[in-house]
Design goal:
heterodimer; A: mainly alpha; MetI-like fold; 14 helices; flat; B: D-Maltodextrin-Binding Protein, domain 2; D-Maltodextrin-Binding Protein, domain 2; 2 domains; five-stranded mixed β-sheet; four-stranded mixed β-sheet; signal (chain B); SBP (chain B); Sugar ABC transporter substrate-binding protein (chain B); Bact_solute-bd_prot1 (chain B)
């Protein structure tokens, strides 16, 4: 992309008649198109291939997904899906009918996902930021610690999560061995992958897997805070806590804004963690939306309903993202003003 | 320069447009096969060996043999199980798929409903030697009743009861159980001091379904009626599910921890001598991999109420297996049929089933002594005598998910010490049945 833009800019002067010999054709073209429009149109023309690709790669699948949500798409019609019968809002009606089992299960799954996302994002951010701040000052072994902290992020998801799945096993898992056999914290051996505890297990794995990203981003952002700010604050007698509250956190604000949003979107959409941890059917307490949608569409060959749920999920995430960006950027303008 | 750029843009746009229109749209409903490319075939094999590489090594020489005989080159792709159904569905929607493919036999009716597979009518079947070459139960798992089969049986498997000889001897049991009452009694004798009678995979939906299905047959219950409507809450179905979960809840011969097993941990427990019995299909290689010698375990048919497996209420196993199918849009219809004929020939059936530890669904191939060892003999006899295919209905996948999850939840209840009653079983199955409603 960069090369095309540069070439275009280099070529532009002759077109405007900078070169003596090029004057005649330039004038002729000027008759056909007003100069301003021509100049304004050029960037769009150059962007066109990228735009088309973007349409193809991003928008077309989304539009097809939306179209699918209005169809009755099961194994009977999948072979010729453009001829599948239209169902109008039928799929959506099933999905949002809270008295019927499908809608009620979806609402339950939605609430679980909300609680899970808020907790996971909060913990990831907190642990990541704390670790980044503690590792800001230079000391021996800092590099080693940083590398160590990043390991969960670098591990392949399947390998990491399946290890947790074995650690959470009731009879011969490491977690129960430590909690029950060594520390005697629990009465019996609790199940971690069944029942209500599964929510905790899922949260632990998700935070463990994602917090290094928060750590990485905050570490990078901390490098750009000028050292003299801290020196001046120290001269004025501000302690560590005050420095963090008055200098570090306000400086991190723009980074945090993006970080929290990205973490939220990832966590809310997370499919791999619950899938590897629980298999096709998650316990009710840990029934995240993406797995729920997978189960109600792919596993049961009911693609129309699944698409309708996905579209609802997309709408919800769009609303949250837009609201979040609106709220945070207005707040920042205030702070700046 | 400028002209060149314009040309590039135009070319790109045209290519994109072509690609876009190529992606859209499904297959035409009447689209049959052709013989446009008679010299090549693409074959999607399921992963039957320890890994994909092993499968390539096993199948490679056979495909070469086929090429020497017919001049048709077979492009082999071995597809791992988690991807196989996704790939088939993608091929179905786009119409761009392999010529020949393996499918799990429980998918037969669902895939048949998509219309993507070549129906094996009498003419097609005659070309590979006719219906009678195959054992009847295996042919029953090739599509909905009353329709032409959507696939042909390739490898077959059934369940058997594996038991630990040493643990039985120590508990003073001379004969392995033939009825469920005996199994429970034996299990209770063994279940003490950290060892348990029976192993189970409570978190594995398909395994739950397989066990509940066979027990359901013994209670005279099918999970679907003749019209294909779910009947999960019939008295027989409830009793079957309760009987299975009660091995943990009431009889206490299954360790509570098995409720969360889903990665074949129960086989490892068996190999390590922590449980004395498991119900499994062809587990010999897994036991060997976990360090258990073939002499240490015995194998008998899965118990039935009367003690003698047979048909009807004495059915003691679901019929598991792999079918081979031809994609309707193939460009080499004759070659595809020839390839299926080759794969189901006596010689290939003997060789491949021997290698994979399965039982040939082809009668003549079963005569080989390899299918007369202590374990394969039981599997083979069960296949011909007392196995039945899972319901061949288009909603089979939903059934596995919804009822499999219900049993998983019931095991979780039992493991947590909550009572499992007829009412609680019925409530879970009612919920499962509601999920099936369109």
């Amino acid at each position: 992309m960069t090369t095309t833009t540069t070439t275009a800019r280099e070529q532009a002067p002759p077109g405007r008649g900078g070169r003596p010999g090029g004057k005649a054709p330039a004038t002729r073209r000027r008759v056909l198109l007003p100069a301003r429009l021509r100049r304004a149109g050029l960037p769009y023309l150059l962007l066109l291939p990228a735009l088309l690709l973007e349409l193809l790669v991003h928008l077309v699948p989304m539009v097809i997904g939306i179209v699918m949500s209005f169809k009755e798409l099961t194994q009977l019609t999948i072979g010729n899906w453009d001829a599948a019968p239209w169902k109008a809002l039928g799929n959506y009606r099933v999905t949002v009918d809270l008295d019927a089992p499908v809608g009620a299960a979806l609402l339950h799954s939605f609430l679980v996902t909300c609680a899970f996302s808020v907790l996971a994002v909060g913990l990831c951010w907190l642990i990541g930021t704390a670790a980044a701040i503690f590792l800001q000052d230079n000391f021996r072994g800092r590099g080693l610690l940083r590398a160590l902290f990043l390991t969960p992020y670098a591990l392949p998801i399947y390998a990491a999560v399946i290890t947790w799945a074995f650690m959470f096993q009731r009879d011969n898992g490491l977690v129960n061995h430590v909690l029950h056999d060594q520390l005697h914290l629990t009465d019996g051996r609790p199940f971690w992958l069944l029942g209500d505890n599964s929510f905790v297990a899922l949260l632990v794995v998700a935070v463990w897997k994602t917090w290094p990203f928060a750590f990485l981003v905050v570490t990078a952002a901390l490098q750009s805070i000028p050292k003299d700010l801290y020196e001046a604050a120290a001269l004025d007698g501000a302690g560590l806590v005050r420095q963090i509250r008055r200098i570090t956190l306000p400086s991190l604000r723009p980074v945090n804004q993006v970080l929290v949003l990205v973490l939220f979107l990832w966590t809310f959409n997370d499919f791999n963690t619950p899938y590897v941890l629980f298999g096709k059917a998650a316990p009710e307490a840990a029934d995240l939306l993406s797995l729920h949608i997978y189960q109600s569409s792919f596993v049961t060959w009911n693609f129309g309903t699944g698409s309708a749920m996905s579209v609802l999920l997309l709408l919800f995430l769009l609303v949250v993202t837009a609201g979040y960006l609106l709220a945070t950027s207005r707040g920042r303008k205030h702070a700046d003003g | 320069m400028r002209i060149l750029r314009a040309a590039t843009v135009t070319a790109t746009v045209t290519a994109l447009a072509a690609a876009a229109s190529g992606c859209g749209g499904g297959t035409s409903p009447g689209g049959g096969g052709s013989n446009d490319s008679p010299k090549t075939l693409t074959y999607w094999a399921s992963n039957q060996g320890p890994n994909v590489e092993a499968d390539k090594k096993i199948l490679g020489p056979e495909l070469k043999k086929f090429e020497r005989r017919t001049g048709i080159k077979v492009k082999l792709e071995v597809i791992p199980w988690p991807d196989l159904l996704n790939r088939i569905l993608a091929a179905t929607t786009s119409g761009q798929g392999p010529d020949v493919l393996n499918i799990g036999n429980t998918w037969s009716a669902s895939l048949q409903a998509t219309g993507a597979l070549l129906p094996w009518d009498k003419r097609n079947l005659d070309e590979i030697g006719g219906r009678d070459r195959f054992v009847a139960p295996a042919l029953g798992a090739t599509g909905a009743a009353g329709k032409d089969p959507a696939a042909v049986p390739l490898y077959s498997l059934t369940y058997a009861l594996y038991y630990n000889k040493q643990m039985f001897k120590e508990a003073g049991i001379s004969e392995p159980p033939a009825t469920w009452d005996e199994l429970v009694a034996d299990g209770k004798k063994i279940s003490k001091d950290g060892t348990w009678g029976l192993g189970a995979e409570g978190g594995q939906l398909t395994n739950n379904i397989h066990q509940a299905f066979a027990l359901g047959k013994q209670h005279g219950a099918d999970f679907f009626d003749a019209a294909g409507k779910p009947t999960f809450t019939s008295d027989g179905a409830v009793a079957a599910v309760k009987q299975y979960v009660d091995f943990m809840a009431k009889d206490q011969i299954i360790a509570p921890g098995n409720a969360e097993y889903g990665q074949n941990q129960s086989l490892r427990d068996f190999a390590k001598g922590r449980t004395a019995m498991v119900l499994w299909q062809a587990a010999a290689t897994t036991f060997a991999a976990d360090g258990m010698k073939p002499d240490d375990w015995g194998v008998v048919p899965v118990p039935v109420p009367s003690g003698t497996p047979g048909t009807g209420r004495q059915i003691n196993s679901m019929l598991a297996g792999i079918n081979i199918a031809v994609f309707k849009n193939t460009h080499n219809l004759d070659g595809a049929r020839k390839f299926v004929k080759f794969m189901t020939s006596d010689a290939e059936q003997k060789l491949l089933n021997k290698t994979y530890g399965s039982v040939p669904p082809v009668k003549a191939a079963q005569q080989d002594p390899a299918f007369n060892r202590q374990d394969t003999k039981v599997l083979r006899e069960t296949l011909t005598r007392s196995a039945a295919p899972l319901p061949q209905v288009a909603d089979e996948a939903q059934f596995e998910t919804s009822v499999g999850t219900a049993i998983k939840d019931l095991f979780a209840d039992a493991a947590a010490g909550h009572p499992v009653t007829t009412e609680s079983v019925r409530a879970r199955l009612t919920k499962a049945e509601q999920q099936m409603a369109k």
